[in-house]
């Protein structure tokens, strides 16, 4: 019985002690083709159909893959007997060990060619170009690998073909980058537009679009255009957003007119803060303003106001009701003091009456 048949029955066609199937698969891998496919940023987003030209090996038509000038030029290998393998037997302390290996002389072919084909120079295959149409799905990632089965090199003698492996490389797009299904861009907005709000033109993968900037937007905030991002490869109807990161531009050099307007704005903000002072502080300011007005008025008016305040204090000590106090004060003032006032003194006293009443109401009512 042929020892090779016994070995193959237990271990399969192998180039060692074990792993025959692995050996066969490795031989098939030599038929595979790698192709680096470069895509534009937009092609990776929307997908495309490309026709590529692949370098491959095809069976030589002249020798039909034998590599010989004619069939008479093919001789069986004397070393392996045409099997392409040799069986080496060795005695060891554990018994007799047999190992099958590729025939070194014929390279595993089992034959020797005495006269090679002039077209393929004995290789049995020739270099060729093949055009293949490939479909790129929307949303493909950079570095993705696509396998197209049966589009590799073809071995006519064995009747098998390898596979074509496409390795995708996506070109960068200035100003736009991808993170998952989202696209990102940075845009600059003038500080006045950030305060007032505006509409700006922004670049997307579908051309330029209007982007609404809301008033009061802050640096670093994002504004998005929904559904303008990357489609999902698993579900192309689902698409991410295009997000824009806001950078508020503050000028370092402004014109005199701009400076004047900004200073006016600053004064308005200062005035607004002054009007928002708490009530107790506002009363103190009103009292200070009243005292300043009294100082600038005639000495007669000042003495009259002091007299009025003194009379109010005396009345307060003799009355128990704030309403009674105010009525008593007004009665005395208008019946006795009003006719004796003249000019600015009369006007000053009349203007201060409501204010005095408010002070009484704020500070004296229990």
Number of strands: 17
Instruction: State mean pLDDT (0 to 100 scale).
Output: 78
Q: At CATH's second level, what is the architecture of the largest domain?
A: Sandwich
H/E series, N to C?
A: HHEHEEEEEEEEEEEEHEEEEHHHHH
How would you sum up the global shape?
Answer: elongated
Organism: Stephania japonica
Biased composition (Low complexity): 292-301
GO molecular function: heat shock protein binding; unfolded protein binding; zinc ion binding
Zinc finger (CR-type): 47-129
Can you describe this structure?
The protein is of the alpha+beta class and 366 residues long. The chain has four domains: 1-30 and 74-112, no CATH class; 34-70 and 115-171, Sandwich (HSP40/DNAj peptide-binding domain); 177-249, Urease metallochaperone UreE, N-terminal domain (HSP40/DNAj peptide-binding domain, Sandwich); 277-364, no CATH class. It contains nine helices and 17 strands. The protein has helices at residues 3-11, 20-29, 41-46, 191-196, 256-275, 279-296, 299-318, 322-337, 343-364; strands at 33-39, 48-59, 74-76, 85-92, 95-102, 111-113, 125-136, 145-148, 154-155, 160-161, 164-170, 177-179, 182-190, 198-204, 207-213, 222-225, 242-249. Strands 12-13-17-16 form a four-stranded mixed sheet. The chain is elongated, with a radius of gyration of 50 Å. The chain starts with a helix and ends with a helix. One of its GO terms (molecular function) is zinc ion binding.
């Amino acid at each position: 019985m042929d020892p090779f048949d016994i070995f193959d029955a237990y271990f399969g066609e192998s180039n060692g002690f074990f792993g025959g199937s692995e050996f066969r698969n490795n031989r098939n891998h030599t038929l595979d083709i790698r192709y680096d496919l470069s895509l534009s940023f937009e092609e990776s987003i929307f997908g495309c159909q490309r026709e590529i030209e692949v370098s491959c090996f095809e069976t030589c038509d002249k020798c039909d893959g034998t590599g010989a000038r004619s069939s008479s030029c093919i001789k069986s290998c004397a070393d392996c007997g045409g099997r392409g393998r040799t069986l080496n037997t060795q005695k060891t302390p554990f018994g007799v060990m047999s190992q099958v290996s590729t025939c070194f002389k014929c390279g595993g072919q089992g034959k020797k060619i005495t006269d090679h084909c002039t077209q393929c120079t004995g290789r049995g295959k020739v270099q060729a170009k093949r055009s293949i149409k490939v479909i790129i799905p929307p949303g493909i990632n950079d570095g993705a690998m696509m396998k197209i089965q049966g589009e590799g090199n073809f071995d006519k003698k064995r009747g098998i073909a390898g596979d074509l492996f496409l390795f995708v490389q996506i070109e960068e797009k200035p100003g736009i980058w991808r993170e998952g299904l989202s696209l990102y861009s940075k845009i600059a907005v003038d500080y006045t537009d950030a305060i007032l709000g505006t509409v700006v033109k922004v670049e997307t993968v579908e051309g330029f679009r209007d982007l609404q900037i809301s008033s009061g937007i802050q640096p670093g905030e994002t504004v998005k255009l929904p559904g303008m991002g990357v489609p999902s490869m698993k579900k192309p109807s689902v698409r991410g957003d295009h997000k824009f990161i806001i950078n508020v531009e503050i000028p370092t050099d402004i014109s005199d007119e701009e400076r004047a307007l900004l200073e006016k704005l600053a004064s308005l903000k200062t005035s607004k803060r002054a009007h928002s002072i708490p009530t107790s502080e506002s009363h103190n300011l009103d009292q200070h303003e009243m005292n300043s007005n009294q100082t600038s008025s005639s000495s007669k008016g000042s003495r009259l106001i002091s007299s009025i305040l003194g009379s109010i204090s005396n009345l307060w000590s003799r009355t128990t009701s704030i309403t009674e106090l105010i009525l008593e004060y007004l009665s005395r003032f208008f019946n006795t003091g009003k006719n004796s006032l003249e000019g600015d003194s009369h006007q000053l006293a009349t203007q201060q009456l409501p204010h005095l009443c408010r002070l009484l109401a704020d500070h004296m009512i229990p």
